[in-house]
Amino acid sequence: MEILRLAAEAEATGRDIIHMEIGQPGTPAPAVAREAVTRAMGQGNLGYTEALGLPALRARIAQLYDEWYGVDLDPNRILVTPGSSGGFLLAFTSLFDPGDRVGIANPGYPAYRQILKAQGLVPELITTRMDDGYQPRPDQIDGAGLDGVLIASPANPTGTMLTPDGLRALIEVSEANGTAFISDEIYHGLNYAGRCTSALEITDKSFVINSFSKYFSMTGWRVGWIVLPPDHVARVTKLAQHMFICAPHASQIAALAALDATEELEANRATYARNRQVMIDLLPKAGITRFAPPDGGFYIYADISHLGEDSLTLARALLEEEGVAVTPGHDFDPDRGGGMWRLSYAASTEAITEGLTRIAAFTARRS
């Protein structure tokens, strides 16, 4: 947030800022989604939906699982949520009691820690390694006494994915240890090095959380979904009724239309794929060589410890000297984040290329 504030102040003075700190697509919601909401607004019949969400939307999400993963999914196991954040709240509330311990990868999405703590739960940081793609290993879960584990693939901030065998091994060791398994699949669809594997291809016992924010370019619409184990559907439906009543009706209408915007969405993904390759090619030329190549999403999590200063100090200097905004690693990893940057490549290819040229000039002055 510090970098966002400074970048906004710099832009207000007329400076040209390259945004590589923003964790959202640089594209709007699909045109058909916006058109569908315009029609619905004209009809004036928006209101509460059932807590599970619009039946047509849940049926279409179930169809997506067949299209992407070959999974035959009962739409009655799908609950539409106000963003993935609503899914995490519902999953944690249904699965855990205060004081329970939930394992999450370190580095990882910082909201996991804060939502867990707000619910009286204990986030157990699983220290991961670059050699493992910053993903947990089964031996870090086996015998750890965890009540739950949350896995993201592709992950934020690293963009790395688990292989099908890697995901299966984590699920199997979790089930053997009586550890509830939650799969964050919010970046599915944004994959470049092989397809994403859903936990639903392996088990019906996990909670699977997804969102329209990333692949579908609908961050501000606040709509996502959770796929529930059959024995949790009734309980989570009641929780959703009390917590949210329902996800926003207008956003559900937009989401239903977005699911058929394949041509536009795949064009967006092609841009991210080009940007990813630009990052992989040009970062080493800027002297930044230590990172796990991202398999999905639109981030690279890069080691900049060789530059000799804290990542926030360096991010401020980069913004001031070169007009490039990046995210320091502190929020993603409280222990090692002082030596890391997260760089987003969700902007245009031209902007990403120019940003890396400026980063190279910045690092050259510090070598």
Describe, in short, the structure shown:
With 367 residues, this protein is of the alpha/beta class. The protein folds into two domains: 2-29 and 262-364, Aspartate Aminotransferase, domain 1 (Alpha-Beta Complex), CATH 3.90.1150.10; 31-258, Type I PLP-dependent aspartate aminotransferase-like (Major domain) (Aspartate Aminotransferase, domain 2, 3-Layer(aba) Sandwich). The protein has helices at 2-12, 31-43, 55-69, 83-95, 110-118, 164-176, 233-243, 249-258, 262-282, 311-322, 349-364; strands at residues 18-19, 78-81, 101-106, 122-127, 148-152, 180-184, 207-211, 224-227, 299-303, 324-325, 327-328, 340-344.
Task: Write a structural description.
The chain has eleven helices and twelve strands. It is α/β, with parallel strands linked by helices and 367 residues long. It has two domains: 2-29 and 262-364, Aspartate Aminotransferase, domain 1 (Alpha-Beta Complex), CATH 3.90.1150; 31-258, Type I PLP-dependent aspartate aminotransferase-like (Major domain) (Aspartate Aminotransferase, domain 2), CATH 3.40.640. The strands form three sheets. It has a seven-stranded mixed beta sheet, sandwiched between helices. It starts with a helix and ends with a helix. 48% of the residues are buried.
What's the structural blueprint in terms of helices and strands?
Layout lengths: L1 H11 L5 E2 L11 H13 L11 H15 L8 E4 L1 H13 L5 E6 L3 H9 L3 E6 L20 E5 L11 H13 L3 E5 L22 E5 L12 E4 L5 H11 L5 H10 L3 H21 L16 E5 L7 H12 L1 E2 L1 E2 L11 E5 L4 H16 L3
Parallel strand pairs: 1-10, 3-4, 3-5, 5-6, 6-7
Antiparallel strand pairs: 2-8, 7-8, 9-12, 11-12
